[in-house]
Request: fold
Amino acid sequence: MLPTFIRRSLFPLLLLLSWSPFRAAAQTPATAPTTSATAAPKRQLQAVRITEAIKLDGLLDEAVWQQAPVASDFVQQRPNPGVPEKNQTEVRVLYDDANLYIGAVMHDVSPDSILREMTARDQFGNTDIFSVFLDTYHDQLNGYNFTVTTSGVQLDARYSPAGGEDFNWNAVWDARTSQRGTEWVAEMRIPYSAIRFSKAPEQLWGLNFARQRKRDNAQFFWNEVKPAVNGFVNQWGELRGVRDVQPPLRLSLTPYVSSYVNHNPLNAEGTRRTSTSFNGGADIKWGINESFTLDATLVPDFGQVQSDNQVLNLSPFEVQFNENRAFFTEGTELFNKGNLFYSRRVGATPIGFYGLKAGAHEKIRRNPAETRLLNATKVSGRTKQGLGIGLFNAVSNDVYATLRDTLDGHERQVLTQPLSNYSIAVLDQSLPHNSYVSLINTNVTRAGSTYDANVTGGLFSFNDKTNTYAVDGRLVYSRRRGTQFNSSEKVSDQDGYKYQVGVGKVSGNLTWGVNQGIESDTYNPNDLGILFGNNNISQGAYLNYRKYKPFWKVNNLSLFSEVNHSLLYRPTRYQNLGFYLGGNTTFTKSFLQIGFDMNVDQASNDFYEPRTYPLGEYYVRVPGSTRLVVFFNSDTRKKFALGMNAGNRTYALDEHLSRPRRALYSFGFYPRYRFNDHFTLRYSLDWSRATNQIGFVNGGLKNDEPLDQPWLGQVLLGRRNVATVSNVVSAAYTFTNRMSLTVRTRHYTSTVQYADFVTLAPGGKETPADYARNRDNTYNAFNVDAVYSWWFAPGSQISIVWKNASATSLLAEQATPQYFDNFNATINTPHNNSVSVKVLYYLDYLMLRPKK
Reply:
């Protein structure tokens, strides 16, 4: 993966050139065969109003289809940008008072050239696809994507400067496909309730079409989207002729019922090992007007989402988990502006979970690890003037732990999370030339005297008229007021700030940029956002080159370079200086992708690993190092596909201590076998081993330490070897384009073995410690997620989920680096099992209202 600096600075370019078909497709010529940095002229297509009914069957046999103008003459985007399409694509657009209809015919050379792997909804596979893109406010920054595969599998996405290409967004629409000899046909019906647009008498929408022919990994667009031009939505054509249509009343209700049976053999003595529950709630969607939509979830149930990938965390920072809850992944592009919203904070582990203490003769009988949401609501939309407005609010309930007296059986409740309100407000103004300016505010208010938090940020991106050069930046202010939870200790009324500014060339084969930023020592957005470490001054520069046209035996070439330097903000002290170089290319005939990443880092000072605050006095010296990772991915069109990577980081010898040289090795192995168009098996292996790593063990007095030890009150570090293995096996069987079964099994193990210990003094000085306690540790996590899903009607779903989970920590003499010993111990440990059934039913007011 590219470093954070490059991924942030090159976001528009990486968005268009990454592995997802439409992120890669975001750069396709449509007229002139060129890859210049000037956007192509915008094509126009007229839509035709109809009064007769259209039967959605993938046949296009109604006469009115032949009366509509044709969009054709697509141009290849990959692997050879600018080449006109040989096998024509013909697209027509119809509309009535309620729907937009898209009819597309994709010609090919032979029937068996049309690939048609079956996948679950929103999943790409070894299949041809057709897509339509709509920019309904014509702001050239935000848009919709509706995609269908040859097998009729539907995919949809939103585009925005903040969220990029977001396939978590889902709309209720329909499509049918068919194959006729050497061509395949796609017919789409997109209700106006699925999109947002103004009340203008005549609409002007951004429009583009894309076709992927998987047989030769070719991607085509109707309107040219050049690789060297910054942006995607700004390179679409135009749809004209849509007149006298009114945004409909967008009102839908999706009630759900769910039932769970859970068996946990590790439940405390005296409690039931098997429990059942029955739940009900609803999602509501209401179009407030033509621009804005309210989404609300009442008494939500997230029990069926995929299990988190739990890991052994030895770092001073928390683990960031993926968001798998649909409500927090769909339509959240506005709330993600500025990266100030980490949705896992909402409904997270109670703030008093880890600090819960049992009294004398007490046992913890129940300590909930999750906060139950009462409701969550979001209002978002964009006016015809390009002003995006987003409002988010969620309320979580009180959470109580239960403690039982072992002598008399009396139980008492302890509050671990007070009633809390989470809110976000966003204003985002689209500007000409792919530019924008935004204002974001996040707020967390807790009941009682527990501290509250507020963060306000402004950000901007201004491009010149040619969309060649850009300047961007942000200024964020954070504020905390109140007392610590269950404590009278004041939170020192923290006020902090962050700023960042950058300038660079964003279009062309050669791009570059420089940026500089500060995060003050009191800046803290973590109540509703996520930040791994503040108190930084950072500056950097990048220089990148991409060759889009094939040459020699390769399709393209990408080279990335970067230099980063950082200081501690207060006190101002050197932290690190690093250089990065990376590249990748894809061969012309085999479509084998190869690449590398290389880092050269100078000796640095780690102020976070000692975990002493305020920062600056204590730090761990890290020797200079060189890291090299090479990788390849084989042709995914084949039944058998393989990805692999191997890496090594070698450190210089520690100059101040005569200890062995540090090293880090890693290996990844990712085979996939497609048995047929319905069944695919995937496996992933990630292995790493760090030798002679220096890390934090403990600081100060610990409850489990003897009281007469000389290191009490000091920072204790250990030299250790850390071996980590992660195995994931996934199987997917897709019965139809609306019914699928997936099973994902993951086993993770990580073992830490200590060799010796030192105490850390101010200034990075280390002194050997006569510390004899065995601090070795092995952590195992095991999960099975089996999901049967059936979309029995548009927007309506039945899902049956089985989850199996266990996690163990083996300490001291029980810890072992032997993988199969850990695997056997994990399998033989009692597991938590859960089976659930959930039914969603989509009710649309437009379908239920009486017909006129």
User: Anything to note?
Assistant: The mean pLDDT is 88. The first helix runs from residue 4 to 9. The longest strand covers residues 739-761. The radius of gyration is 28 Å.
